[in-house]
Amino acid sequence: MTDIEPDLKQLGDRVVTDIFAMGENVEDPNNYPRLQQYDAWCRRVDEITVAQGWKDLNDVAAEEGLVSIAYERHHGEYSRIYQFAKGYLYSPSAALYSCPLSMTDGAARVMEVYGSKDMKQKYYPRLISRDPKVFWTSGQWMTERPGGSDVSRTETLAELVDAKENKWKISGFKWFSSATTADMTMLLARTIDPDTGLVQQGSRGLSLFVAEMRKPDGQLNGVRVHRLKDKYGTKGLPTAELELNGMEAHMVGQPGRGVATIASILNITRIYSAVGTLCSLRRCLAIAKDFALKRQVGNRTLDKTPLHITTLARLELIFRASAQISFYAVQLLGRTECLPENDPQRQQDMEVLRLLTPIAKAYVCRICVDAISETMEALGGQGYMEEIGIGKNLRNSQVNTIWEGTTNVLALDVLRVLQKSKGAALKTFAEVMDKKIQVALTSSPMVFTDAAQRIRSSLKDIIVFVNEHQRSATVEIHMREVTFALGRVTAATLLMEQAAWALTNSVAGAEQDVAALNQWCQNSQFSKPLVAVGLDTILQEAKMVFGPDAKL
Ligand code: MFK
After folding, report:
1. What is the pTM for the complete model shown?
2. Whose CA is nearest to atom 42 of ligand 1?
């Protein structure tokens, strides 16, 4: 482990020097991606030009091992924590290059778990290479015009060309393809039965495919770029609408299991979203804190102003809670990838991670984006100025509440886990949380009694609520609150684990850890009751808000 700290330190120095400059180059409006569809002879070329900084950020990512560390596994189950710690440093300076990296990471995992022998030889080594000349990035194409979250509406079709070679031709339209300059992509398509010509509808008719962006002669592989997206943020990242016309591809995993297989990518990119928003908050909070030390208001600096400092402390608390949740997900990801398959610890970790991932993405992204907005306010008008850098962090982070599943889609994913496991997932989750509380209580009973009582009571309320309502017709309405309540309680438990560890090991900052826990648990939002109301009442209340004549 002695190699990790110096490596993080050198990357920390780079993200405020050369990597920062690369990110700024990408964020310069003069360098935003451009699409040239035709050459001088009216031949279709569909060339996307990106900033030099974008290419440099790719090379840095490869050299720094931002994907590879997780797969080299030199540090066993801790490799994921090491990798994400580096991503955490890199991301706020890197103008969303973390987006192609997240999909590349997910694609590497799919190749490792589901790839054929050929795919493991051809793609896997490229996706995890540290050599920029060998390193490939991957896209991930799901969303189509008729549906984003509802992939059952997918129109793209896959026609079998050669069964022995597992060769397919894919045609359709992908509405959001991020990092369109990637070298390869993972995409969903609906297979045409070669015998009957029939196409199975619904999401169970979807399979996962891998395809290269270009053919060996350099021509695009049956892809036409219709246009680049004009997005609210992530401006330097090329996102495009693509028409696929006979794109050569190979099926990955079992036919009809596309959604379940691509979920391995989603579950990784969703953790990237949480960590990506978290580190943007860290960057913006650092700016706000520094400003508070220097800005004079009346006869004192802002950090001596009670209302201002209380506001910043609340944001710091949100950061700490979010850091605990996000890196707990990273820890579990590392363990599930490294422990032997038949290890009971692995089974338990997988169960907890499956429930935690949508909670982390939904809760952390939501509260951190709101908190970033407040850091902007903490600098007054200066915070609103582009040069300060909070604006671009806010714009770029906002996408994390949307892509790879919105807050509501993830809340419904939490419901999917609860219902599919028939309550077992929540039971395991509660047991794991309770064990952490017990360990903390044993180490310092006097310090943790009050917080432990509050957390246990909150957890009990959630379990009672879920058990009562998970089969009811109206359960969906409550899932956002249930998800957030689980987020709050997870953060509290992990803040307690952190404080207990810090006290036991006499670590500097232990007192702050205890204070953070107590403030989190005493916050009025923490034990916000979950209230069940009938569907009619909810609809009636919503309609009253919209007005009597509203069509909604
Ligand atoms: C950064 C730059 C951004 C630029 C702008 C971007 C803007 C936005 C661009 C996008 O559009 S990103 C959108 C990416 N799309 C998503 O994140 C999809 C969101 N929707 C979901 O996540 C839905 O929940 C899902 C598509 C997965 C629902 O699909 P189904 O087929 O209706 O779900 P179903 O039938 O419940 O599940 C099928 C199988 O997958 C089940 O397994 P079994 O067949 O074994 O029972 C599920 O358990 C499994 N599954 C679903 N989600 C899973 C999962 N397994 C593990 N983990 C998960 N998360």
Report:
1. 0.96
2. 260
